[in-house]
Amino acid sequence: MAEDPSKCIKEFWAELPRTDEDFLGAIRDWKNVQIAVDDDTVWLKGFTEEQAISADIQQLPNFMLYELRDGLLFKKEALVPSKKMRTALLWSAIDKALRLTFPASNNNYFGISEKVEVRLKPGDEEYPAVALLSIITEIKDSIPAQPNFKLENIEWTVIGDKALFLGTPLLSLPGKTYWTRDGHLLPAGFDFEFKNLSSLLQQQYDKDLDKWLLWNEDGTYLPVKKDDFRKLSVSSFRLTEKTKEWI
Question: Where would I find the MoxR-vWA-beta-propeller ternary system domain in this sequence (predicted)?
């Protein structure tokens, strides 16, 4: 008689000290995960197998993952259980239970207890690039050589000695590319350490939705007003050449 496939599905639990609960912001958008609190411990359950081995889990400090078998909690690949399953816990969806707020005075920090610094890290997913930041002296001869159809869907502005191009398809020019989420321009290949805070950062720093927030890998950002962008054309680029000192 064939074995019931449902009996092969692994159920994962986890625990960590309440003193480290701030770090759970990294997985707050995993809506399938549930959370409960028992004295000084935070309990979690409902992880998929993919989530259980993800980098987001591995980076959490003092995080202990278990596999639930017959009411007992086993550490990874352990043959002997570590403890019994906790009962009488009040479970809630993790995205509902963790209420993230911004501190009133410190613009560089946010989180459950205002202890988590805004950081970017290499992302797990690849997103299409929508912006390009180029040093103007390196591209000044390339713009006039571009056919008009490649320029017509691009807007641009000047930031110091650089040009920020916005639009797709991007021009084939040297420079640094960015992708977008919630009004942020993030370096290609990077994402916020706590992905779910993207919209909250926008609410904090761009309530009127009139700016692009251009981020660096070190977690700093530059607000760029959307009104500063203009349509890219050979004439607008040459006009800028005549008025800037870097030419």
Answer: 14-239
Element holding 71 (H helix, E strand): none
Give the N- to C-terminal CA distance of the chain in Å, as an integer. Answer: 80
Query: What predicted TM-score, i.e. pTM, was given to this entire model?
Result: 0.56
Q: Residue ranges of the chain with pLDDT lower than 70?
A: 1-8, 98-117, 196, 241-247
Pairing of strands 211-215, 184-187: parallel
Read out DSSP for 217-245?
Answer: TTS-EEEEEGGG-EE--HHHHHHHHHH-T
Residue 118: per-residue pLDDT: 78
Listing DSSP states for 79-110 in one string gives: SS--EEPP-S---EEHHHH---B--SS-TTEE
d(C-alpha 178, C-alpha 127), whole Å: 9
Q: ∠208-212-215 over CA atoms, to 5°?
A: 130
Determine the Cα–Cα distance for residues 157 and 162; give it in Å rounded to an integer: 9
Question: What DSSP line would sit under 173-187, residue for residue?
Answer: -SSEEEEEETTEEEE
Sequence ranges of the domains in the chain: 9-99, 120-243
